[in-house]
Amino acid sequence: MIAPISALGKRGTRWLSRFGALARFLWDTLIAWRSLPRAGRRVVRRVFLTQVWFTAIQAIPLIVVLSGILSFLVISQAVRELGRIGATELIGSLMVIAIVRELGPLLTALIVAGRSGTAIAAELATNRVMGEIDALDGMGIDPVHYLVLPRFLGAIVSVFGLIILFDVVAVLAGLAAAVANGMASPRYFDIVLESLSFRDIWLSAAKGVIFGIVIGTVPAFHGLRAGKAATQVPVAASQAVVVSIVAIFLFSAIFVALS
């Protein structure tokens, strides 16, 4: 009777300890800019731009295709079904609530977590295995400054920008779907703009920042915590993606509960 309770307590303690370490890691990353040497800012800027190029720019075709297909399918079905009962005004709410506010940020974050989060964790875990992290520590260089901070900032900027792109493409693809199913384009824009509020824009922007923080922190945390065996690289990458996805869904649920 006591053994299962003890095992559960140990597991809970281990999860709390890991959560505390992750929170501490996030805090160290947030304050890293203040202690960054002036000479190192050029390096951080270069790594940041590289991260944005890989995470955001190279992901644009994928985001455009997925957003366009999703919105076209949803709005096509909505125009047909809602048109039968004379409730086409609900298309605006469907577009804003289901796609712009919820699915847009969620799917964008999942794509970035699976694509770039894996790369960040694997790259930093490889640095750990190759001894590069120990070499930086030995030279008195904080790995958070040059390895974590630029990737952290790059993830936030990339997720935020890709969410905006996803929403814009979704609205335009919805327009194409509506016109293809017999709705006039001015009517479509009137319905969507009437349903869109500043609160929806604010929620999408807030989700972009929060999801970017998750993707910029969790993979780096697991990558730097990897062991020195080569087999730890895929382990760190898989753990980072799983934890990131769970955190993204958790924060998405929190936003829904608070809104």
Account of the protein in words:
It is a single chain. The chain is mostly helical and 259 residues long. The protein has nine helices and no strands. The protein has one domain.
Main attributes of the structure:
259 residues; elongated
What are the SSEs and their pairings?
Layout: H1 2-30, H2 41-57, H3 60-84, H4 90-129, H5 132-138, H6 143-180, H7 185-195, H8 198-224, H9 232-258
Estimated helix fraction: over 70%
Mean pLDDT: 84
Number of H/I helices: 9
- The count of DSSP E runs of length 2 or more, i.e. the number of strands, is 0
| Cα-based radius of gyration, to the nearest Å | 22 Å
How many domains? The number is 1
Strand content: under 5%
SSE topology string: HHHHHHHHH
Main sheet? none
Based on Cα principal axes, name the global outline.
Answer: elongated
Helices and strands: which structural class?
Answer: mainly alpha
List unreliable stretches of 5+ residues: none
Distance, first to last CA: 42 Å
Could you give a quick summary of the protein structure above?
This protein has 259 residues and is mostly helical. It is built from 9 helices and no strands.
